Amino acid sequence: AYNPWQPATTKRWMSLRSMLLPVIDVVGDRRPLVIGEYGTRSDPHSPGRGAAWMRSALTFATNHNVAAMAYFNVTREDGNTSIKLDPERLQEFKNGVADARTVKLRR
Predict the structure, then answer these.
(1) What is the torsional sign of CA 25, 27, 32, 33?
(2) Minimal CA–CA distance to 64: which of 93, 25, 12?
(3) Which helix (H) or strand (E) holds 35?
(4) How far is C-alpha 83 from the geometric centre of its chain's CA atoms?
(5) Is 36 helix (H, G, I), strand (E, B) or coil?
(6) Is 85 within 8 Å of 50 (Cβ atoms)?
(7) For FRET with 6, which of 19, 51, 65, 75 sits at 20 to 30 Å CA-CA?
(8) Span 29-40, average pLDDT
(9) Cα separation, 60 vs 66, whole angstroms
(10) What is the pLDDT of residues 67-106, one digit of tens each?
């Protein structure tokens, strides 16, 4: 589940919520969902927008029985901005991992 927005295109900014609600409408909140990959870009014209997207994604996931989600942390070489975690989104990712609503594996 990737936010399709890119600064050099006309693709719209989409929340994780807007992408997953159609799935939840079909399967409901009773069954756990796994998001194999998710990600967003930062908006160079709107600092904080990418971090806010991630915060919103975590809130949505914890409120809708998402059992697991993995951030796809990669640099794309397609001329667009990367979904690789920059300092702003990395901090939000760390905040999410530290959130009491998330489960962590113990060593």
Answers:
(1) negative
(2) 25
(3) strand 33-38
(4) 10
(5) strand
(6) no
(7) 65
(8) 91
(9) 9
(10) 999 999 987 666 566 889 999 999 999 999 999 888 777 7
Residue pair 102/93 in contact (Cβ under 8 Å)? The answer is no
> Which amino acid, residue 22?
P
Q: Which amino acid is at 20?
A: L
Is the separation of the CB atoms in 5 and 14 below 8 Å? yes
DSSP 37-104: EEB----TTSTTHHHHHHHHHHHHHHHTTEEEEEE------SSSPP-S--HHHHHHHHHHHHSTTS--
**Residue entry with tokens 């908006």:** 43
- Residue tagged 């949505």 (tokens): 60
